User: What shape does this take?
Amino acid sequence: MPRTVHVIGAGLAGLSAAVELQRRGRRIVLHDAHAHAGGRCRSWFDGTLNTTLDSGLHTVFAGQPATQRYLRAIGAADQLAGPALPEFPVVDIASQQRWTLRFGDGRWPSWLFDAASRAPGTTPLDYLALAPLAFARMGRSLAQTMRCDGMLWERWLRPYFLGVLNVEPRHASAELARAALCGTFAAGGPGCRPLVARHGLGSAFIEPALRMLQHGGAQIRLNSRLDAFEFGAHGNAVDAVSVGGERIDLAPGDAVVLAVPPEVAQPLVPELTAPDTFSAVVTAYFAVEAPAGTPLQTAVVNGVVDAVRTGGGPLAATIRDAGRWLDTPRDTLARRIWEDVARVTGADPETIPAWQLVVEPRAGFAAVPSQEMKRPAVRTRWTNLVLAGDWIATGLPATIEGAIRSGQLAADVLQTQ
Assistant: This one.
């Protein structure tokens, strides 16, 4: 009989680990404390807007290897959509200036020498400001590593880094900024083409994975909360897990992937160090269709919102690093967001349509040096217990790519134990 792996947590990290391990012949038992899978990457039907909403405006890039591998494995590679070319429309709310960053269709960055493709007001030499990132040191912020001002910063680098790091970029870890930039642009123009879930996050990332796991014989146990681990007398393995009041013994060769948030993992795993400061995201959905010809997604500078999305459902906008807005009354915040959305789309700012806010106060660990250094490794001191989650030491910020990579790393470790 194949060895059993109990995957605790059915978010993206847990699903990624389960998919990889099942493909390698392991028997999977997937547990989640909630009545639904997906964690912070899911979809649900909203009665206010009478439509399906996502937990946020997540974007992936065509060249991200872990995400593409996962989608191919679960048969969902066709669930992402995006522009045919790597183009990024931008609107400056303050000046109402609009431009489109175009990164070309090859590995050679010829777009640097085309004024219509790069950020307005910049020259090719300005992009040498990125060179110090190649030598980014552990524990250093972006502001301590490279120049964080000027046209290039305001019109491309700051919006980009805010989108992938979800903290004020000047304070962000330079190592994580470098990893995000290289992960997006290393494959050239085609690899940085932005993609979104065409029918929602659930249809792209969650439901196909659950179907694949069930078809392969996995047990899916929702409303199944991990209570405790029982560690062996010699201290090098987990002997049993207690889930929902049931004690489950682990046979030789069995293992556990713990893919839960850090605040859940720490009480369960002795002496576990983990990030303890988090960044918030606010997403607003509006019951209105965008005008014809509006880009799928537009980055916003000098506004309250950081991006506006017009395709695949209701008009939506997101605020990243949104901690300063968490105490704002919901109707006040919705109206303030709508003012920016109206400026981007040309809608009437005085007539706000029906709306819904999705507030995630712990969207991911804060991608600053002090928190990066608290991220634990995949391996633990127990040979049959590994960790997964976007908060472990993947080398990436808290993104879809980071969560999926963590699950794949956990599967790799168990295969070599």
In short: Residues 400-416 form the longest helix (17 residues). The chain has a mean pLDDT of 94. The first strand starts at residue 4 and ends at 8. The CA atoms of residues 139 and 370 lie 7 Å apart.
